[in-house]
Please model this.
Amino acid sequence: MKRNDLSQSLVVFEQHSTLVAVIEMGLKSWLVAGLVPGLVRQPLKRQAADEKLLVKQLYRWRDEAIKADSTIKRIAVAFEAGRDGFWLARWLRAHGIEAHVIHPNSVPVPREHRRAKSDRLDTALLMRAFLGWLRGEAKHCSMVAIPSLAEEDARRPNREHEHLVGERTSIINRMKAALVRLGVRGFNVKLRKAAEQLEKLRTAEGEALPPNTLAELRRDMARLKLVHEQIAAIEKERLARLRRAPRQDTHPMVLLLARVMGIGVETADMLVHEALTRPLRDGRAVGRYAGLTGAPDESGQRRREKGLAKAGNARVRRGMIQLAWRWLMFQKGSALAKWFTARTAHAPREVRKTMVVALARKLLIALWRYVTTGEVPAGARLRPAV
Model:
C-alpha cells in the first residue's frame, strides 16, 4: 500500500490543458468557480445543488476552451469537506472527472480581526489553495482521503453507538435533576423497575411526586428504555457480523485488536474504522491524525507549549485517552504502563493527567504497529485466540 499524506499532488500540472474548478457548496445552491485555459475571464456560476448541472457546466467551459484553441486533457474539481460528505467526489470520479476533497483546516485564510467573508471570496481562497496543491507545493493545502461507500458505511454503527450513549447520559442526568429539584436523592433511575417505584417516591415535604413531573419522568424512562434497546441491538449485530464472517473486510483487524486485554470490541471497531485502516505514513502521522501531538509556540526567545493540537480525529483522541487509563488497569506489566508509572510515581494529579496524553499517543502508535506489522506492544497481555 502506498502511503501518502495527500499534502501535495504527485501528478504533473499542465495548466494550459487543465480545466480547474472549485465548488462552494450550500444546501440549496452551489457556487462554482473555474480557471479555463484560453479564457481571460475567470468564470463564476451559481447553480442549483445538482450534480448533473455541475457536469453540464464543466463541459460547457471545456467547449469554450476548445473554441479558444485550447486542448483540455484534464478536468480537476475540488471542494471542502463538509456536511455533504464524499458522495459528490465519488459520483464525479465515476463519470470520468478528477475530484478532490480539501481539508477545511488546511486552507490558509486572512488573519484580520474582521475579515470579509462571502461565497465569492471563499471560492477565490479555495482556487488559490487548489492550484498550489496541483503544482505540487507541499503543505499548500491537504486533501481528505475519499472513502468508498462501504468504508463510509462501516463507520456508522460506532458513530451511532457513540451518539446513543451520549443521549442515554443526557436522559439520565435530566431525570436526576428533576428528582433533586424536589429533594429526592439516592434513587437510581437506571434500575429496570425504576418506573414501577416512582409512585412510592416522596418529596422532601413528604408528598408524592407532582403529576406533571411524574408524567415527564415516565416519558424519559420510556426514552431511556428505547435507547438501551438500540445500543444493545448495535452491539449484538456487530458481534454477529464478526462471528459470521471473521475474515471479511476489516474484521480480522478488529478481532486482532480485541485480543489485547483492556480493549473491547467497541473500542477496537472505532480504532480500526476511524484510524488504523488509513494509509498513514509513519508513527508521527498516526499521532498527528488523532490530534495527540503538541502545539508549540516559538517566536524569538519565547518558547511555550499551548497544549494538544486537537486538529485530528476527535473520536480517536477521546477514545485513546479513555483507553490509556484502562491500559494502566489491565496492562500493568506492559512497558508502556511501567514507563508511565516511573514518571508519575510521586507526581501530583495534574502531572498524571498530562502524562496520560503522552501515554495515549504512544499506545496508539503501538497498536498501529500491532495491526499493520503484527508487533505486539512490549509486555502486553493477549486473550487466547478464538
In short: Strands lie at 18-25, 29-35, 44-48, 74-80, 98-102, 294-299, 302-308. Residues 153-244 form one domain. The radius of gyration is 27 Å. The chain has a mean pLDDT of 92.
